Amino acid sequence: MADHIPEPTADGGLPGPAVPGELRASHADREAVVERLRDAAADGRIDLAELDERLERALTAKTHGELDRLTADLPTVAPPAPVKPLVLRGGMHGVRKNGRWRVPAHITAFGGLGGVKLDFTHAECPWQVVEVEANGEMAGVVLIVPVGWAVETDEMNPGLGGVRDKTVSDRTPGAPLLRLTGNGGTGGVVVRHQNRWERRRQSRSTRAAG
User: Could you tell me the superkingdom of the organism this chain comes from (predicted)?
Assistant: First the structure.
């Protein structure tokens, strides 16, 4: 069935602005509700059968009003606390950011002569979209993301080193999107998942901590 197109008013003019509940929902709006419903199920506020029903309705909702009804009986979620933008400079010896850390909404990385490696695998990310300016310079920038996260590199300038996105394309509903800008420089910019060696090292570290 085709989407409803508002008809002109009786006097031939355009209809007035839609009331808030009638505004069309975006993919990001639907995904935010999906994430909130999953959190509510994890907290025991709704059972799995109701979760499945609400998720189906959320993914097919056309307006904000339809989405609002799915979360009307859930507690209001406070917005994420602000996190200062992160700036990483590879310099002479390189910089790594990994382990458990809180992701800000804006990140800038300069590869310098030593390179930058930014690992999001175990990071806490409260944002639907993270803006990353990656400048490969001489040594390059490497971004490691969890499976299920989405990556956009269309606005990157490849430079001499290029921009390589080695991630799988399937995005988990509600997972963050990394939107990359910047320049590949000489060293290039690479986005990938953990490799076998990194997964093995992480497994050893987890066993040792336990």
Answer: Bacteria
Residue 94 lies in domain: 86-209
Give me the amino acid identity at 66: E
pLDDT for 107-116, tens place per residue? Answer: 999 999 999 9
Outline where the chain has alpha helix (H). Answer: 27-42, 48-60, 64-71, 196-209
Is residue 14 domain-resident?
A: no
How is residue 100 annotated by DSSP?
A: S
Q: How many helices (H) and strands (E) does the chain have?
A: 4, 10
The verdict on 50 and 96 lying in the same domain is no
- DSSP string for 91-159: TTT-EEE-SS-BPPSEEEEE-TTT-EEEE-TT-B---SEEEEEEE-TTT-EEEE--TT-EEEEEEEE-T
Phi, psi of 69 (to 5 degrees): -65, -25
Alpha helices in 48-162 (DSSP H): 48-60, 64-71
